[in-house]
């Protein structure tokens, strides 16, 4: 018997539909796409952050889950680099790589797991290791920042490589908003607290005067999540993201 509410599959479908509308705006804004299309994309990252917390919490192998995200992050970085090198659309810059955001989040969740294990076992060394893992995205950000300041050609090449392979939080598509992932993970057994954290984050963006405050509408599908996985099609979602961005970018190039 089917439960009422939304499954993980339903959340992913909703996420990619909203994301598609947002990316139509991104690619075709220079050609007259209305700004209100961008509004649809504001809850997307929050929905996928929530789904990643579910996935990381319930996967049979967290190592394989993280490896899959990292490989996707690198391939996405290679694809956008190659696309922009050989197909130039001056009005469009491809900074898209949600896989980096999600991988950075899994690194932090993995760090939280190690800290928790060290606390339970009264092992200070393991707790220190967990903190170090949690801070890796910030440490990588420091490395990227150092490369940005270095004037040599080698540093320039290293910077290009870093943009592809390093899970630095400063390179994340959503910046510090990625910190919402470990917060949602810590509150994974309290849906009301997860929704409160999302609302507080949205309030910050409202005060800052950006449209990202519309992420608050992600609370509706998240609150309706029924705990079921739903249909599979795992690799469809991994393929849809780079695929639709490449197609929309190429269409924008044709218009240009």
From TrEMBL:
It comes from Lactobacillus selangorensis. The chain crosses the membrane at residues 9-28, 40-57, 69-88, 94-115, 127-149, 161-185, 197-223, 235-255. Keywords: Membrane, Transmembrane, Transmembrane helix. This is TraX protein. The keyword S-adenosyl-L-methionine does not apply. The keyword Cell inner membrane does not apply. It holds the Pfam family TraX.
């Amino acid at each position: 018997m089917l439960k009422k509410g939304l499954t993980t599959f339903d959340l992913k479908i909703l996420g990619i539909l909203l994301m598609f509308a947002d990316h139509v705006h991104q690619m075709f804004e220079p050609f007259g796409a209305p700004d209100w299309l961008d509004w649809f994309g504001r809850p997307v990252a929050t929905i996928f952050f929530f789904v990643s917390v579910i996935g990381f919490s319930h996967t049979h192998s967290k190592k394989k889950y993280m490896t899959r995200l990292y490989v996707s992050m690198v391939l996405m970085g290679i694809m956008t680099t190659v696309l922009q090198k050989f197909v130039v659309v001056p009005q469009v810059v491809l900074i898209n790589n949600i896989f980096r955001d999600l991988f950075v989040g899994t690194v932090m969740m993995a760090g939280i797991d190690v800290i928790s294990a060290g606390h339970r076992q009264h092992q200070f060394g393991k707790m220190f290791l967990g903190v170090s893992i949690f801070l890796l995205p910030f440490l990588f950000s420091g490395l990227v920042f150092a490369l940005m300041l270095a004037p040599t050609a080698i540093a320039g090449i290293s910077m290009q490589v870093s943009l592809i392979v390093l899970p630095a939080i400063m390179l994340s598509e959503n910046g510090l908003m990625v910190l919402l992932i470990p917060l949602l993970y810590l509150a994974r057994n309290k849906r009301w607290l997860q929704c409160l954290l999302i609302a507080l984050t949205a309030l910050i963006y409202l005060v800052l005067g950006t449209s990202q405050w519309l992420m608050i509408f992600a609370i509706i599908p998240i609150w309706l999540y029924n705990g079921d996985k739903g249909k599979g099609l795992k690799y469809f979602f991994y393929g849809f993201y780079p695929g639709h961005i490449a197609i929309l970018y190429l269409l924008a190039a044709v218009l240009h």
